[in-house]
Design a protein that fits this description.
heterodimer; A: mainly alpha; 77% helix; elongated; disordered N terminus; B: alpha+beta; Immunoglobulin-like; 2 domains; 4-stranded antiparallel sheet; flat
Chain lengths: 631, 177
């Protein structure tokens, strides 16, 4: 019974339903407006949260930098992107940073339902970080329109926060309303039982546990919560000496599952406590066939002969104690070998095996690997939250170490590219620049000419001047007429008067032509100017393209020295930090693993001593019974 | 004796459960301390990655020649995408074979950047080929050629793939800004 009393507090932990921690309800391809956001999701869906964060951080930073964010493609998904950053950070175990982006949504000018979802997510982060007061404060910010998909999750979180704050009565009120809520049924039923128990309503709590233990679901999580309810109920019943109900509860636990070994062991103790040793043999006989590294199986190896002893079958009891003794000896050797193996660094090598990381159930799979004896006793430890966090951090640091090394190598490649580009462009550029300067001055001259023409034509439109549209021949003719006029004016020749008349006639013809053809010439001049403009546009495009290419040529090798040097330093410093953390994290993992193995070893030694004593006692009793004509 | 064994076993269990408590607390504190440092380093490395990406983009894919091709699946697509091949101006740019995880990520709405490279400004042609299997087990293959214009800014091309019974083009090549 003592055992039950001590075991219960560990069981009285609330069930946490981790709803919505993965990026959910993302846009379909047809609705997606920002490819880079889609790329971040692509990485996140594969569990590559570093890459997802890298992409989304860059995209959000760019979005915040643009002058008109409303015209940026990320604007269509901005709320979702801010949420996703928080989700990715949580998934990448960056709890300290996770709330930052969500807080930005909460404080931004957003729709009420979006703000409420942000408040919920923030509360969930606070709760996961072990800050229930802050979580409650965030939940208090939820008002008005709440998205239907998270309505129950909000209330479930609120109940858990109340429990964490030691307000079980408030939790009871919330959880009562959640009974039967889709997707939460097992969790809300179990948590209601715990809340009732903590608020001083044991009878209602037991009834509720009974209900929770019969809520069936198809998924492994529902089955686990059902088993957990039955285990807690069974242990409470054992504690209150209600052995029959205890047996019924333990019997309801699935025969395969995380609680099955403990359930079989406890069921045996329930029968034994009711002095029904014959029935106790059934679960314990099943249990001793199971994996011997499990603590429940080891305890059953002593419990089973104890039951046979109670039934006065001392010979069988002695044999089983004997077997247990051998088994404990073997296991102790295994534990010693595991400790040695861990000290040689093999445990950490196993943990970073790539094929194991690919598998979601990799902790379980470790046991199936033939060459990893150091992990046999550590599956329970490795499944614990703290150890998982430490282990994941170790793996993350290993991953960052590889990334940083790759980046360090890439700097050499970058510098090589820059050197080759400089070697290619620098000898070419002076000649190109000289040619360009010559062409540039010609282009400028032509552009000035074009501008003058344009100005003249504009002036003509206001004040018509036909002479300005004279052809070259006409201009020459005009000049010659003017020269002849001057010459004739000074002449005393008697034929001068006749010649002046002819000159006037010629001048009149010229003026006639210029005036009558003026509209046509003006139209043609504008047409020619438009054609010239098209050529100028082509010229300008080529000119701009050349300037851009020329600039790009220089930019392809200039201005990188400082950033590369700065990044080199940052990568080197980060690598040092990562290596230190890998070493410290690895050492801590090894220390914890060795401590766990030592504890298991100590327990085995105690079992061994006890079995050694019991085997002698059983043989003694068997001999006496035989001598007395009994078994 | 039997009762003694049971009491002893239970007693040991209690001792074993209780005694590592202090050690566990110490380890937990150490793990928490390390966890905070790990988070800081992660933050720092992410910022290095951001700076490095900018540098890489500027150095390797300057905006006047930058071309990126993205692949997405049309919503509710059920066909199994095995591979995608991309050619730019007749030259092989990317040939990608999809794992189950990658295909699942595409089906959920993720977008894969299949190619990043450089092309000169002006007219070009992209050819996209897909290979896969339909729910019926039948092979499914399709190829599409589309001209595109590369201006002075970065060029982003989105390729959306769909099955034969979806009523949508098998390969839809779209222009993104």
């Amino acid at each position: 019974m003592n055992r039950t009393r001590h075991a219960i507090p560990k069981f009285l932990l609330v069930a946490l339903f981790a709803a919505g921690t993965s990026p959910a309800a993302e846009p379909a391809a047809s609705n997606l407006r920002d490819l880079y956001f889609g790329e971040a999701l692509y990485q996140a869906y594969q569990g590559h949260f570093f890459e997802a964060l890298e992409r989304l951080d860059a995209e959000l930073a760019q979005h915040r930098r643009v002058d008109e964010p409303q015209r940026d493609s990320l604007q269509y998904h901005i709320g979702q992107a801010e949420f996703s950053v928080g989700d990715f950070e949580l998934n990448y175990r960056m709890h300290l940073r996770a709330g930052r982006a969500i807080r930005a949504v909460l404080e931004g000018n957003v729709d009420e339902s979006v703000r409420n979802e942000a408040a919920f997510r923030l509360a969930r982060i606070h709760f996961q970080k072990g800050q229930p007061d802050d979580a409650l404060e965030a939940l208090a910010r939820i008002h008005g329109k709440i998205p239907e998909a998270i309505r129950n999750d909000i209330e479930f979180l609120r109940a858990n926060v109340y429990l964490a704050l030691g307000r079980p009565a408030d939790a009871v009120e919330v959880l009562k309303r959640l009974q039967g809520a889709a997707g939460l049924s097992g969790f809300s039923a179990y948590n209601l039982a715990i809340a009732l128990l903590q608020s001083g309503h044991p009878a209602d709590a037991l009834q509720q546990l009974d209900k929770a233990g019969q809520v069936t679901g198809d998924d492994p999580a529902s089955a686990a919560i059902e088993d957990k309810s039955n285990m807690v109920l069974g242990r409470l019943m054992l504690q209150s000496a209600n052995f029959e109900r205890a047996q019924r509860s333990f019997d309801r636990v699935h025969l395969e599952g995380p609680y099955s070994n403990q359930a079989l062991l406890s069921a045996g103790w329930a029968y034994a406590s009711a002095e029904n040793y014959e029935r106790a043999l059934v679960p314990w006989n099943i249990l001793i066939q199971r994996d011997v590294t499990d603590s429940a199986v080891q305890e059953a190896k002593l419990a089973l002969p104890y039951a046979y002893g109670k039934l006065n079958v001392y010979g069988r009891a002695a044999t089983l104690y004997d077997n247990a003794l051998v088994s404990f000896g073997d296991e102790l050797q295994k534990v010693d070998a595991s400790i040695r193996s861990i000290r040689e660094g093999k445990f950490l090598k196993v943990l970073v095996r790539e094929e194991i990381k690919q598998d979601k159930e990799w902790v379980v799979r470790l046991r199936t690997l033939p060459d990893t004896p150091e992990t046999f006793y550590l599956t329970d430890l490795m499944a614990s939250h703290d150890f998982q966090t430490a282990l994941q951090n170790y793996l993350d640091m290993e991953d960052l170490h590889k990334k940083l090394l790759a980046w360090q190598a890439s700097f050499d490649a970058f510098e090589d590219i820059i050197r080759l580009r400089r070697a290619n462009y620098e000898p070419l550029l002076p000649t190109i620049d000289a040619q360009f300067r010559e062409l540039d001055s010609q282009i400028r001259l032509r552009m000035e000419q074009r501008d003058n023409l344009d100005k003249r034509l504009q002036a003509i439109l206001i004040e018509p001047r036909p002479e300005l549209l004279a052809t070259a021949d006409e201009r020459i003719a005009q000049e010659r007429i003017r020269a002849l006029e001057t010459a004739l004016a000074a002449s005393t020749d008697p034929r001068a008067a006749a010649l002046q008349v002819r000159l006037q006639r010629l001048k009149g013809v010229l003026t006639w032509t210029l005036r009558t053809e003026y509209p046509q010439r003006l139209t043609e001049a504008h047409q020619h100017l438009r054609a010239l403009n098209q050529d100028v546009a082509v010229l300008k495009a080529r000119y701009d393209s050349f300037v851009r290419t020329r600039q790009a040529a220089v930019h392809s090798y200039e201005g990188y020295d400082l950033p590369i040097s700065r990044l080199r330093t940052r990568v080197r410093e980060a690598l040092t930090q990562v290596d230190t953390l890998v070493a410290r994290q690895g050492q801590l993992i090894e220390t914890v693993a060795i401590a766990e193995l030592k504890a298991r070893g100590q327990r085995l030694e105690v079992y061994q001593t006890q079995a050694r004593y019991a085997v002698a006692d059983s043989y003694d009793r068997a001999t006496k019974t035989q001598a007395g004509g009994g078994f | 004796m039997s009762l003694a064994i049971r009491s002893f076993v239970l007693g040991v269990l209690i001792c074993v459960c209780v005694s590592p408590g202090r050690a566990e607390d110490t380890y937990r504190q150490q793990m928490k301390g390390l966890d905070e440092q790990v988070q800081e380093v992660k933050s720092d490395v992410l910022s290095i990655a951001a700076e490095l990406n900018q540098l890489e983009e500027k150095l390797l894919y300057p905006s006047n020649t930058h071309l990126a091709v993205f692949v997405a699946l049309a919503p509710d697509e059920t066909f199994r995408l095995d591979a995608v091949q991309v050619q730019i101006d007749g030259q092989l740019a990317a040939h990608y074979i999809y794992s189950f995880k990658e295909l699942e990520a595409l089906q959920k709405g993720g977008v894969q950047r299949i190619y990043t490279g450089n092309v000169a400004t002006g007219q070009h042609e992209i050819q996209v080929s897909l290979n896969g299997k339909l729910a019926s087990g039948q092979d499914y293959a399709h190829t599409e050629r589309v001209p595109f214009d590369k201006g002075i800014g970065p060029k982003l091309i989105g390729v959306t793939l769909a099955g034969p019974n979806s009523g949508k083009p098998a390969i839809d090549v779209g222009d993104w800004h």
